[in-house]
């Protein structure tokens, strides 16, 4: 029995060489970053109190910009977070900040849970609730607050740290996050049965029929593309196939962040995998911004 979790990208050796240009490690700049002290977190029963933190002042424009975010961070406790666990806190803004939102301005939140320091490959995200001025209630001291609850849909292996980030439009001011707490759900074994095991010997490609050269429609095809085409045609002639899997290492019953269902059973990652372009673009942008953030420290 094993449970679902967020996964690192894992591909076979042949495709790994082709995609080696896609970076490793990422981050966000965060124009309004504040850090909670490690001593503030404490556990009572199944509730982990993470403390309070206030962002630096930010000003959002007419469009969302994830390069211009408010952000606060909290240390984790190194323990597992089960599916159905809840992140709760109160978000408070000043009267001036409230007025800056008008009718159409808003704050959109994202909770980034790290399993290891600055390791974006195993990051777990909760999001993305949107709060307009009408969602805030006025307090006795003329500030405005709203309650926030975010729920885990799958397990997280290790809670190293939390980044609460926000973007939006038409907002100017600081945001106070108070009473930030994690209510842990009970870890339950999911009803997943492994009916096959890894074979003693792994199948290897029969390259007997692999052509020495191929002619492709694209006259400008690279040598790597030609080799791949010859390889696939050779497998076809040998009566073999290459197994493919969409998001192989992102959707799996394992929770160690490095393997996949296919690897559990066959001992190897899929020969082909599908990944939407926006995921690659987002990963690249995260890595660029991470380098900028650490350079500015």
Helix count equals: 5
Q: Structural class, from helix and strand content?
A: alpha+beta
Helix content: 10-25%
CATH architecture of the domain at 31-190: Sandwich
Q: Return Rg in Å.
A: 24 Å
Instruction: Please name the CATH topology of the domain at 31-190.
Output: Jelly Rolls
Spatial shape:
elongated
Overall mean pLDDT stands at 78
Largest sheet: 6 strands, antiparallel
By DSSP, the count of extended strands is 15
Strands ordered across the widest β-sheet:
2-3-13-6-10-9
- Taken in chain order, the helices and strands follow as HEEEEEEHEEEEEEEHEHEH
Unreliable parts: 1-32
Instruction: Give me the CATH superfamily of the domain at 31-190.
Output: Galactose-binding domain-like
Binned strand content? 25-35%
CATH class type of the domain at 31-190: Mainly Beta
Question: Which SSEs are present, and which pair or pack?
Answer:
Layout: H1 13-18, E1 32-35, E2 42-44, E3 47-54, E4 58-59, E5 70-75, E6 86-93, H2 95-101, E7 106-114, E8 124-132, E9 137-138, E10 144-151, E11 161-169, E12 172-173, E13 176-183, H3 223-237, E14 244-246, H4 261-266, E15 272-274, H5 277-296
Parallel strand pairs: 1-5, 14-15
Antiparallel strand pairs: 2-3, 3-13, 4-12, 5-11, 6-10, 6-13, 7-8, 7-11, 9-10
Short summary:
With 297 residues, the chain is of the alpha+beta class. The protein is built from five helices and 15 strands.
Q: What are the key terms here?
A:
alpha+beta; Jelly Rolls; 5 helices; 28% strand; disordered N terminus
């Amino acid at each position: 029995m094993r449970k679902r979790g967020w996964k690192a990208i894992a591909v076979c050796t042949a495709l790994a060489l082709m995609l080696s240009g896609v970076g490793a490690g990422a981050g966000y700049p965060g124009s309004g970053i504040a850090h909670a002290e490690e001593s503030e977190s404490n556990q009572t029963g199944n509730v982990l109190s993470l403390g309070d933190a206030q962002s630096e002042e930010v000003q959002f424009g007419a469009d969302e910009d994830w390069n211009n975010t408010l952000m606060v961070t909290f240390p984790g406790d190194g323990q597992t977070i089960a599916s159905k666990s809840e992140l709760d806190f109160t978000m408070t803004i000043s009267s001036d900040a409230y007025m800056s939102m008008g009718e159409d301005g808003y704050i959109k939140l994202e909770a980034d849970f790290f399993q290891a320091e600055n390791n974006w490959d195993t990051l777990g995200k909760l999001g993305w609730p949107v709060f307009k001025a009408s969602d805030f209630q006025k307090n006795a001291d003329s500030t405005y607050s709203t309650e926030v609850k975010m729920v885990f849909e799958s397990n997280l292996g290790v809670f190293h740290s939390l980044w609460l980030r926000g973007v939006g439009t038409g907002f100017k001011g600081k945001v106070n996050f108070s009473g930030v707490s994690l209510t842990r759900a009970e870890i339950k074994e999911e009803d997943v049965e492994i009916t096959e095991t890894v074979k003693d010997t792994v199948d290897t490609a029969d390259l007997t029929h692999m052509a020495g050269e191929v002619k492709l429609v694209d006259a400008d095809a690279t040598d790597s593309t030609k080799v791949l085409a010859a390889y696939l045609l050779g497998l076809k002639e040998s009566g073999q196939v290459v197994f493919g899997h969409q998001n192989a290492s992102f959707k799996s019953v394992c929770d160690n962040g490095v393997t996949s269902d296919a690897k559990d059973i066959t001992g190897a990652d899929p020969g082909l995998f599908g990944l939407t372009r926006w995921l690659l673009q987002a990963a690249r942008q995260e890595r660029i911004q991470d380098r900028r953030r650490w350079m500015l420290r």
